[in-house]
Each structure stands twice: as structure tokens, then as C-alpha cells.
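Side project, low priority. Logging it here so it doesn't get lost.
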Amino acid sequence: IIGVTTGGALFGVLALRTGLALVTIWALPASSFAGAFAVSFAIYLLAGGGRRESIYLLLLLGLAFNSILGSLISLVLTTTQDFELARQMQFWLLGGLEGRSWEHVGLLAPFTLAGIVFCRLHARNLNVLLLSDDSASSLGLNVERVRLELLAAAAVLAGASVAVSG
């Protein structure tokens, strides 16, 4: 919803378009991962960090980023002269595990496991955040820090998924 996967997809398509993805097996996943992180933190910073009223702004900015990045992906696809490359980018955008090996699983596993463990350790904080920001703060929770950390964990999980499967 907030453009994380679309950012990863745009950077992945750009890696395919520029030929960077042909350099090494890690170039495409790394590009996608970087795109997911870049978009996540750009949206977070533009929304004003962890301020309470920024949640709605974060969602609106995310939707706007999602639309803009989707348009940029379409622009890259339509301006690609090489039909085979355009087809390859479209198949990658559709997602799938064709051509993936255990090396890709090895690339994905540490990030996925770290993200899952981190989210599990913060499950109690998430429950406290459900009350309200004021209640969470009065219970001693640093709301801004927890939001930033959980956004980073979500970016890791989404980025790793997009990086490997498209």
C-alpha cells in the first residue's frame, strides 16, 4: 500500500534495463532491496517521522508514491526497445520463482528470519500501539523509535520478497 514493493520493483526493472542484473546473480536482488529501503525511508521522512498525526500523511504519501513509481515502471517498460528485455522485465514484475536457485534462498533467508524474529520480539509493542499513541507513550513506549524500527523490519521483509521473487 505504501509503495515499498513498488520501489523495489522499480529498482529491479532499472537493474534489468541497464544491464546491471547481468553482472552478477546478486545485482537484481540487491537493487530491489535498495529500492524498497529507499522508498520506505523517503516516505517516512516526508511524513514527518513518527509523529502521531503523520500516520495518515504516511498512508497518503505511500499511495502517491505507489502511483508515481508504478507510472515510472510503465515508462521504463514502454521505452524499452528490446522486445526480449521488455518481456523479461514483465515476467519479473509478475513474480515467480522460475530460474531461482538455492543461492537465492540463501540470500533471502537471513533477511527474512531477522525480520520475522524482530517483529515477533516487538509483538507486545504492537499491541500497546493499538491502544493509542498517548496511551503507549504513557506506558513508557518510545512510539517514534518503535514505529521506525518496525518500518525498517517491514521494509526488510518486503524488500527481500521482491528481491528474490519479483
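Brief comment: The first helix runs from residue 4 to 18.
Revisit when time allows.
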